[in-house]
Amino acid sequence: MSRQSLAREEQALNARIDAWLEGLDETDREEAHRDGPDDDQRRRTLERLKALRDQTRDNRERMERLGIQHHVTGEPEARLMRSPQGSRTAYNLQTVVDTDTHLIVHHETVQDGDDSRQLRPMADAAQAALETDPIALLADAGYSNGERQQHCEDRHVACHIPPRRTVNNQGAASSIRPMPFIMIRPGMPTAVRPITGCR
Description:
The protein has a two-stranded antiparallel sheet. The two termini are 52 Å apart. With 199 residues, the chain is an alpha+beta fold. Mean pLDDT is 76; it is low at 191-199. 39% of the residues lie in helices and 16% in strands.
C-alpha cells in the first residue's frame, strides 16, 4: 500500500468516525426510543473505527520514517518492482541449494525482476556458506549473463547455465518464411513440388 493511499484511507476513516459520532448524537436527540443498536454495540463499533484509523496513521508514519513508498503488511521485503506483468509490489526470492544434501545454504530477497544480475552475488554467497573452493553452480537460463559467469569462473565457480534464447518480436512477420517439409523416398522423383499453404 502506498503512503498516499494510506493518507487517503486515514482521512476517509476520520470522516467516517465524525459521521458516526454525529449520527449517534442525532439519534440520541431525535429517536431515543427507537429499536436499534444499543449503546454497547455503538461503543464497540466506534472503538473498531478508531483502532483502524490509528493503525493506518501508524503505518503511514512508519513508511515516512523509513523513506519507503509501498508496504505490504506481513511482507516487509516487498517493494514496487518491474516484472513481466508490469510494475507490481513484490520481491524476488533467491535461493541456493546444495545438490548433495538438498539443504538451503543461502537465501535472499531482492527487488530485481531479472535473475541475470543475481548470479554473481548468489555464487559468492554459496561459496562463502559452503567454505569450499572450487564449486560448481547449476542454474536456469534466466541467470545467463556472460560478464557475471566470467566473474564466477575467475573465482573458481564452474557455471552450468544454458544460454538465454530470446525471440525477435521486432521484425516483420515476412522476414522468415517457413519452408515446406518434404520427405524423399528411394525411387521417388526428385522434382517434388512444395506442399500448398506452407509459404
